């Protein structure tokens, strides 16, 4: 019983240690690139949603198709279940594939080729829109940052001139009073 308690405490500590990565998000206030990335992600939720929808539809088409073809035509089918085929389709369409499961039959390889090509095309469609949004967001944030810096510089110049005017006025006031006391001595 005591050992399971220590295991739970150790797990909690590991989770808390892993959450330290969230401190990086506080740096986003100071990084124009991270701010731009966050703004782009917020502005492109529709594009990301459409990408996810299209990928899900394509995966839902290719996975069962490959399962049926490979179980009917392959000598030793690697694809033992439809969820395994879904795993294969996700990895194949979103990356270059792990190679842990490969279609052996010629029709299965044709399905795999069409799955790879459709994955590349589906990933490429929203990229131009997302890039355009990213560049527009970057320019907006850069202009905002320059405007804030200009306003700060103007404020500092104004404050400095006011301080020098006040200093000059105080020199006149206190300078004349100190010269009067020197003349009386």
Automatic annotation (TrEMBL):
Keywords attached to this Swiss-Prot or TrEMBL record, sorted alphabetically, are:
Cell membrane, Ion channel, Ion transport, Membrane, Potassium, Potassium channel, Potassium transport, Transmembrane, Transmembrane helix, Transport, Voltage-gated channel
Q: What InterPro entries does the record tag this protein with?
A: Ion_trans_dom, K_chnl_volt-dep_Kv, VG_K_chnl
Q: Would the keyword Ion transport turn up in this protein's UniProt record?
A: yes
Q: What name goes with this protein?
A: Potassium voltage-gated channel subfamily G member 1
Q: Where are the transmembrane segments?
A: 48-69, 81-98, 110-131
Domain Ion transport, which positions?
9-138
Q: Which Pfam families match?
A: Ion_trans
Q: Which PANTHER family match?
A: POTASSIUM VOLTAGE-GATED CHANNEL SUBFAMILY G MEMBER 1, VOLTAGE-GATED POTASSIUM CHANNEL
GO CC term, one of those recorded: voltage-gated potassium channel complex
Any idea which GO molecular function terms this record carries? delayed rectifier potassium channel activity
Subcellular localization, as worded in the UniProt entry: Cell membrane
Coiled-coil spans in chain: none
Q: Which gene encodes it?
A: KCNG1
Keyword Kinase in annotation: no
Question: Gene3D superfamilies under this entry?
Answer: 1.10.287.70, Mammalian shaker kv1.2 potassium channel- beta subunit complex
Swiss-Prot/TrEMBL GO biological process terms: action potential
Q: What is its main location?
A: membrane
The UniProt entry lists membrane topology as:
Multi-pass membrane protein
